[in-house]
Write a structure and sequence with these properties.
Layout (H helix, E strand, L loop, with lengths): L1 H12 L12 E4 L2 E4 L6 E10 L2 H4 L7 H15 L4 E2 L5 E11 L3 E9 L4 H9 L10 H14 L8 E7 L14 H10 L3 E6 L7 H6 L18 H19 L16
Parallel strand pairs: 3-5, 3-7, 7-8
Antiparallel strand pairs: 1-2, 4-5, 5-6
Helix pairs in contact: 3-4, 5-6
């Protein structure tokens, strides 16, 4: 008898009310409401691959100046990786990491959540010293792919590489990790999108086109520029890449539709 009274009282109260104050909408499951932000929103994994080889470090005087500009570009980019409203009451959230390379690959930081990990990642980028030797871009891209696969989210559609390089070496130079074409094709097969960013503007190099997923991921992206347009050129590159990612990112699937609420 007591159980019957309890059931009738519950029916009279009606369906449970979504708690006030939640930033996102709620989803009902098993007769209860859960905040939608209990589940991941729209995660994006972004990994920087930075060329600090001799052809970059020693191109202009003072030596190492272009590497310093590449580091500044990377840190300015990291500053913009903040949570933002996406769509369908979800937020776009970032994981970011970086490496730099010459004839060896040096991990700067594995994928880490933004913005909480911004300061540490930027400090590590700032402390990079250029290696200044050969240019094994194929090895660096494959290591970046590996970092994207082992870290970050399991949402494979939202994984991106940003490769900053001058495109050297030329054809015939030693490439110990299968070559640039092989590395670029591996990224494509895995659904990883690759932005190809030149060290300097208007730098035309076929290898930069090979690195990029397609023409839209290459354009005239540049990590450095000459004054007085340096700030404008670099800012335009960063904003264009972020806008492309935000406009094409895939949200995680929502929970399946629930049956209509029924009462006694």
């Amino acid at each position: 008898m007591l159980s019957e009274v309890t059931e009738v009282a519950a029916a009279l109260r009606g369906p449970p009310v979504c708690p006030a104050g939640l930033l996102l909408q709620c989803s009902r499951t098993a007769g209860q409401f859960l905040p939608l932000h209990f589940f991941p929103d729209c995660p994006v994994d972004l990994f920087f691959v930075l060329d600090t080889s001799e052809s970059v470090a020693l191109r202009v005087k003072p030596f190492g100046d272009l590497v310093t500009q590449v580091k500044d570009f990377t840190n300015r980019f990291i500053d913009k990786l903040t949570q933002r409203y996406y769509r369908c009451d979800r937020n776009l959230v970032w994981n970011a990491g970086a490496l730099h390379y010459s004839d060896e690959v040096v991990l700067i930081k594995s994928l880490t959540p933004m913005p909480s990990g911004q300061s540490e990642l930027k400090n590590r980028v700032s402390s990079v010293n250029y290696i200044g030797k050969g240019t094994y871009t194929d090895c660096a891209i494959k290591r970046g792919i590996e970092e994207l696969l082992i870290g970050g989210s399991h949402h494979k559609e939202n994984k991106y590489l940003i490769v900053v390089t001058d495109g050297h070496p030329l054809e015939g130079y030693k490439e110990p990790c299968g070559g640039l074409d092989d590395a670029a094709n591996e990224a494509k097969l895995l659904g990883i999108k690759v932005f190809s960013v030149a060290i300097s503007p208007n730098h035309l190099d076929q290898r930069l086109n090979i690195i990029a997923t397609d023409h839209a991921y290459r354009r005239n992206f540049t990590a450095t520029s000459l004054k007085p347009t340096r700030e404008i050129d670099v800012e335009e590159t960063i904003n264009t890449i972020i806008d492309m990612i935000v406009s094409t990112a895939h949200p995680l699937p929502s929970l399946p539709p629930l049956a209509p609420w029924t009462s006694w």
